[in-house]
Amino acid sequence: MAVAATKGFVRMTGETELLTIAQELAEVSRLVEDDDVTGALGRFAERVLRTVPGCAAATVTVTGARAEQPEVLAACATPGAAAPTRDMLTGDGPLVEALRYREPRRVDDTRTDQRWPGFSARLAEQGYRSVLVLPVPTRRRGGSAVLTVFSDEPHRFDETVHDVVLLLTVHAGVVFDNAQLFHDSRALVDQLKVALETRQTIGQAQGLLMRHFGCDAQGGFGLLKGASQNTNTKLRDVAETLVSAHEQETFESALAKFRLDATAGAATS
Q1: Distance between CA atoms of 241 and 257, rounded to whole angstroms?
Q2: How does 51-74 read in b/e, with b if 16+ C-beta sit within 10 Å?
Q3: Among 21, 23, 41, residue whose Cα is nearest residue 31
Q4: Residue 225 CB coordination number (10 Å)
Q5: What is the mean pLDDT of residues 136-150?
Q6: Strands 130-135 and 105-107, bridge-based pairing
Q7: Would you say the pTM of this structure is higher than 0.70?
Q8: How far apart are CA 220 and CA 223, in angstroms?
Q9: Start and end of every ANTAR domain (predicted)?
């Protein structure tokens, strides 16, 4: 029955169907607002579940702190099926080997396969009979990733289905890298924004000190540094407090808090 279903899928997947799948994969590869790696891969795993014939569950996992304990970034399953969890996938097994060696692995029947008895037994208990694991081509730093599909039928993932999943792994790599790039870029933008805001605040505080103590720019910055060192307070926090105090007309109190008195001002002249 599995073979017939696969052949039916092949007949169905003509030029038009392949174009539709390609368009949908391109769409799911795009990032939505505030998307991150986990969110993007979650949407992708759901698409895999709907695309691969006989697929009852799909996961995207990456190398964890220890090779035998992969981190599950995305997991989904058909209604009534248990989504594979980290506990089901850890230890010696095809998934860990695929992550370690970046090579495909396949289990045709979890009830009879003897290569990874512990792994097979855990999946068989959850009703999964066949598994296909393919490395995801990604530029992920410091580790590897794999796409895994599960079926409740034995011998479900033949060569034809293997090729379909192989196509999906390429898009999984695109999703992974795009999401990671997006996340890194957003983080960099946020850091730059904070740096610019901090620089502006420090400049304002420096100007206030220059005017109050009648010193030049170098002297004003020296006062800020001295206040930071004297009170073990970050330079940014000192500047923010001084600017806020000036706005609230409590500038003199803030100067006293940071030990910025006439003596300190005279030292910068």
Answers
A1: 10
A2: bbbbbbbbbbbbbbeeeeebebbb
A3: 41
A4: 12
A5: 78
A6: antiparallel
A7: no
A8: 5
A9: 182-243
